[in-house]
């Protein structure tokens, strides 16, 4: 199977947008591990409509004007991985979930480590927001795009940083201190938020066939 890709520059590094037919199959990081997401042969196709639309929506997200994505998705993985990735799509903008909460949501409370492994294999970064999954204590934990980028994305969603300012070279110590507060806020949220019912999976979850 041949996949089409388009490269885009972003505030979190160069991203590789990958399509399978007319659906988005992957968003890969600039320094992604080669075997983290297994794909077939890749050909560059800058004119593929779904990739152009993905870039447009990502730019809106980085500009702070988009909180939800509306893209046709296709995920390749095991049934368990697809369950985890479907759960990622239900995490609202500006909120976080722990690995144990995701395990509970998919009905497998003992699968916390497996959830972590599946989260790390998430092929469609940012759109399927694995950056919103944190440790039970509020620690940011590992992230394929790097912890600095994870903190940046959470800062953006908390309204605490401006990627436009950073693009102009205006990042200062105050901005860096703002990012650092995100980790403290995330910990506080993890420690104080009440138990919740599993959220509805939304329309995109139907793409997983479960």
UniProtKB/TrEMBL annotation:
<feature type="domain" description="Methylguanine DNA methyltransferase ribonuclease-like">
    <location>
        <begin position="5"/>
        <end position="74"/>
    </location>
</feature>
<comment type="function">
    <text>Involved in the cellular defense against the biological effects of O6-methylguanine (O6-MeG) and O4-methylthymine (O4-MeT) in DNA. Repairs the methylated nucleobase in DNA by stoichiometrically transferring the methyl group to a cysteine residue in the enzyme. This is a suicide reaction: the enzyme is irreversibly inactivated.</text>
</comment>
<comment type="similarity">
    <text>Belongs to the MGMT family.</text>
</comment>
<dbReference type="InterPro" id="IPR014048">
    <property type="entry name" value="MethylDNA_cys_MeTrfase_DNA-bd"/>
</dbReference>
<keyword id="KW-0234">DNA repair</keyword>
<feature type="domain" description="Methylated-DNA-[protein]-cysteine S-methyltransferase DNA binding">
    <location>
        <begin position="79"/>
        <end position="158"/>
    </location>
</feature>
<dbReference type="InterPro" id="IPR023546">
    <property type="entry name" value="MGMT"/>
</dbReference>
<dbReference type="Pfam" id="PF01035">
    <property type="entry name" value="DNA_binding_1"/>
</dbReference>
<dbReference type="InterPro" id="IPR036631">
    <property type="entry name" value="MGMT_N_sf"/>
</dbReference>
<dbReference type="InterPro" id="IPR008332">
    <property type="entry name" value="MethylG_MeTrfase_N"/>
</dbReference>
<dbReference type="InterPro" id="IPR036388">
    <property type="entry name" value="WH-like_DNA-bd_sf"/>
</dbReference>
<dbReference type="GO" id="GO:0005737">
    <property type="term" value="C:cytoplasm"/>
</dbReference>
<feature type="compositionally biased region" description="Polar residues">
    <location>
        <begin position="201"/>
        <end position="210"/>
    </location>
</feature>
<dbReference type="Pfam" id="PF02870">
    <property type="entry name" value="Methyltransf_1N"/>
</dbReference>
<keyword id="KW-0808">Transferase</keyword>
<keyword id="KW-0963">Cytoplasm</keyword>
<feature type="active site" description="Nucleophile; methyl group acceptor">
    <location>
        <position position="130"/>
    </location>
</feature>
<keyword id="KW-0227">DNA damage</keyword>
<dbReference type="GO" id="GO:0032259">
    <property type="term" value="P:methylation"/>
</dbReference>
<keyword id="KW-0489">Methyltransferase</keyword>
<dbReference type="GO" id="GO:0006307">
    <property type="term" value="P:DNA alkylation repair"/>
</dbReference>
<feature type="region of interest" description="Disordered">
    <location>
        <begin position="185"/>
        <end position="210"/>
    </location>
</feature>
<dbReference type="InterPro" id="IPR036217">
    <property type="entry name" value="MethylDNA_cys_MeTrfase_DNAb"/>
</dbReference>
<dbReference type="GO" id="GO:0003908">
    <property type="term" value="F:methylated-DNA-[protein]-cysteine S-methyltransferase activity"/>
</dbReference>
<protein>
    <recommendedName>
        <fullName>Methylated-DNA--protein-cysteine methyltransferase</fullName>
        <ecNumber>2.1.1.63</ecNumber>
    </recommendedName>
</protein>
């Amino acid at each position: 199977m041949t996949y089409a890709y388009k490269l885009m520059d972003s505030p979190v590094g160069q991203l590789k947008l990958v399509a399978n037919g007319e659906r988005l199959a992957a968003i890969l990081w600039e320094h992604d591990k080669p075997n983290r997401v297994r794909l077939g042969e890749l050909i560059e196709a800058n004119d593929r409509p779904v990739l152009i639309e993905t870039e447009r929506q990502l730019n809106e997200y980085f500009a702070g004007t988009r909180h939800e994505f509306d893209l046709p998705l296709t995920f390749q993985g095991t049934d368990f991985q697809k369950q985890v990735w479907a759960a990622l799509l239900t995490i609202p903008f500006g909120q976080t979930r722990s690995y144990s909460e995701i395990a509970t949501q998919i009905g497998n409370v003992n699968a916390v480590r497996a959830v972590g492994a599946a989260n790390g294999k998430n092929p469609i970064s940012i759109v399927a927001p694995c950056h919103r999954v944190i440790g039970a204590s509020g620690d940011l934990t590992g992230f394929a795009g790097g912890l600095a980028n994870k903190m940046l994305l959470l800062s953006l969603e908390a309204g605490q940083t401006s990627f436009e300012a950073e693009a102009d070279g205006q990042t200062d110590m105050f901005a860096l201190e703002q990012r650092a507060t995100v980790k403290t806020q995330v910990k506080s949220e993890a420690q104080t938020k009440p138990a919740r019912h599993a959220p509805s999976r939304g329309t995109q979850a139907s793409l997983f066939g479960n």
